[in-house]
Predict the structure.
Amino acid sequence: MTASGESQILDRGYRRFEGQRSGVGGAVRSLSWHTARGVLGLGRKARYKIAPAIIIAIAFLPAVIWAGLAAFLGGEFFAEFDVTPEYSELAQQSIAAIVLFVTLVAPDALVRDRRDGMLSLYLSTPLTRVTYLISKIFTVTGVLAIIVLIPTLIYLLALTFASFGPDGFGNWMLTLGRIVLSGVLASLVFALISMACSSLTDRRAFASVAVFLVMFGLLTVVGVMIEVGDASTNWRVLDPLNMPFELISRIFGARGEYPEISTASVYLANGGWASGSLGLIWWRLRGAS
Amino acid sequence: MRHDVRVAVIVASELSMVFGNHRALDALDLEVHSGVTGLVGANGAGKTTFMSIVLGLRAATTGTVQVLGLDPLRQGAELRSVVGYGPERNVFPDEMPASDFVKHLAEVRGMPRSEARSRASDALWLVGLGEERFRALGTMSTGQRQRVKLAQAIAADPSLVLLDEPTDGLDPVQRDEMLALIRQISNDYGIDVMLSSHLLEEVERICDHVVALDAGRLVAQGRLDQLVGDVEGVTLELVDAPDLAGSAEAVAAAIAATGLEVTRDPDTMRMDVFGGDTDAIADAVRDAVADSGARIGRLENRRRRLEDLFEAAQ
């Protein structure tokens, strides 16, 4: 103990911890919270907050506009002019936000740990490679779902309060279920594709370029094959940018942008992208020391 | 203090690790007891591989290992919640304050959030970074970063701490301070420590036990005071001067002629004399030096050092 006048600095020494440790569950929760804060720029310098703030603003703008229109003009206006988008279309209005998220923000979740040596430290804790990966997928999907899911939920509530929502409690719950299911699944596919590209490098800029190339490169290649090469439209299943949106449409029972592709193919394509990405992430993680 | 000398902290039996054609660990049978244990060996001796097996991060090719009574592979998560680890790599999230870094890892190791915060602060004070705890890691010196690594390893109240080359990159003063901290962690806080190092001198200074590896093979293990220290005989070092050329050979020959054993490094003026009682050795050295006209630079009891164990294993 040191003292000066009446002030004291107490040497607390080293204390034993006799309480209950939180185990693997606590480790996963802590890592998820830390990752979510990191990708959203919380607790980091201001420049890391800019991209997430812009992305959230872009994502929520359409839903906020529709909610404002519903509040000021009411359901009668919507009924008369029939201008409201389908629930399955609202996520597509946030495509810019989703693309920005998967290219600029999501790569941070994996890249930082490899670059900063945190991965080897995490693996010396109760976390294993499996639980580490579960935490990361859960977090990136969860944060992305905020962008994909919440605007549509705001839209649903706005239309409901304007008496223009789904008819009856059963339909309302069915719509809610479809919004949640489609939003989570589409977020999962986007998150896995972004993480797979990110797992190939320790540099965030390279990861962003890789995600962009996969998303827009394949979109372009498939487009050229179909439009110029006269290939089958089924090649659209290789388009990782539009297949998750197509999945949202099919969950709502709509045919989406590519009605010529069967619903089974859409599900298989998304499953293929998700499982392929997961395999790549796992392969890279297994090789990490 | 909670050292329990009756319980082996680590027990390995017939432990081997093979990577392709390379045998990183070769049938190790060893026990590590409470206190500070030095895991020594040259780079590539198998130290880091052994640590990764102890942490349950790798499965041994053959053999078994128990750490704190737990199987690292089957009970890895439970084990790693009570084991602190300081990696060799000196890379950190640069923008993160030291306190956040230590707190986060304490939480991941199972501390409740409020407990993790106070323990992170305490751990940083204990390693001498109390005033610096809110500084970003990227602004810290190598010595401070090594201390942060130590703080994160002890913050979650582990029973065992594994430190991989904890003095790497430190200057002599910083190295002394780090070694004193490690000794303090074991003596004052009752935490068992295993540190890997290729610097035998620092292991001799602070360790109670030693596990010496050479190319994956066990060279020696046990209490340091039983493996090194004074042994029978003396070490004689003669003054090296132009007018005394050939004196070392003459002295060695004269001593050997009395029936004692002499081992001499041909590149230096040092020789070990043994194989007789103390009086006989003293008389033989005195007479040989006087007759040859040599001058004694140093005369001391013969000691066995860790490097002697490695040389004997060659």
